[in-house]
């Protein structure tokens, strides 16, 4: 090889310069791979956080459902008690009214009293009946309120089922993304090993190393230009490989 050739090298300094640029290039490539891995880990952490929030909300809904269920049971028990009290009271009132009216009728017939007293008694009895009907309406309103709460409970149950379905879907997606992240990690680890072993195994690197040994006596400026050309060529090949890996991912 003639002196001044573009691929000529000169001395140990040229070899140090070459390996410096080659090491810098490999460090940049490894840094890019690490950044991709960190980004995937951050996305996975975000998905896990969203899953935890939905689980917490699901637990709150479960507690709310349990409280409403207990309240429903209590209201049903109160309803049964009130209905029994109302039925017994109404029955007693009717019996007392019938007995009272019978006694009044017998008394009036026996002593010949006027009918005005009987009318007053009937009016009083009617007032008491109205009070009982008012209590019955109150019980009816409470029953309707309990039915509304039951509707809310059913709505919460439906929402709970939807959340369970969303949770199942999210878990499936997270498992799939976790598998993808593991595959990407394996690819990155393999690429890392490959890059670290490239100076000892790659044909181009071995060829350049041999040329360095041959062209030790050449000009340093020409060596730098040749190294720059080789680095650009290797960078182009690495970009092509990265594009292929990205398409596979």
Automatic annotation (TrEMBL):
Xref: InterPro entries: CCDC172 (IPR029618)
Keyword Iron-sulfur: no
Keywords: Coiled coil, Cytoplasm, Membrane, Transmembrane, Transmembrane helix
Domain of life according to the entry: Eukaryota
Coiled coil: 136-198
Similarity comment text for this entry: Belongs to the CCDC172 family.
PANTHER family from the UniProt entry: COILED-COIL DOMAIN-CONTAINING PROTEIN 172 (PTHR22419:SF2)
Name this polypeptide is given: Coiled-coil domain-containing protein 172
Source species: Chrysemys picta bellii
């Amino acid at each position: 090889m003639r002196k001044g050739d573009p691929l000529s090298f000169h001395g140990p300094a040229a070899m140090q310069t070459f390996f410096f640029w080659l090491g810098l290039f490999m460090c940049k490539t490894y840094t890019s791979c690490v950044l991709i891995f960190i980004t995937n880990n951050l996305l996975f952490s975000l998905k896990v956080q969203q899953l935890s929030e939905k689980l917490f909300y699901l637990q709150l809904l479960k507690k709310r459902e349990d409280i409403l269920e207990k309240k429903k049971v209590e209201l049903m028990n109160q309803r049964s008690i009130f209905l029994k009290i109302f039925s017994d009271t109404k029955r007693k009132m009717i019996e007392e009214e019938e007995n009272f009216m019978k006694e009044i009728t017998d008394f009036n017939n026996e002593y010949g009293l006027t009918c005005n007293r009987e009318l007053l008694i009937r009016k009083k009895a009617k007032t008491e009946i109205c009070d009982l009907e008012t209590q019955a309406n109150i019980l009816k309103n409470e029953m309707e309120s309990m039915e509304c709460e039951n509707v809310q409970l059913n709505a919460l149950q439906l929402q709970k089922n939807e959340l369970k379905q969303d949770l199942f879907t999210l878990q499936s997606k997270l498992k799939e993304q976790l598998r993808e992240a593991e595959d990407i990690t394996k690819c990155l680890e393999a690429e890392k090993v490959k890059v670290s072993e490239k100076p000892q195994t790659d044909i181009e690197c071995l060829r350049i190393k041999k040329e360095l040994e041959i062209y030790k006596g050449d000009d340093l400026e020409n060596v730098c230009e040749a190294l720059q050309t080789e680095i650009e060529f290797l960078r182009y090949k690495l970009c092509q490989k990265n594009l292929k890996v990205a398409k596979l991912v």
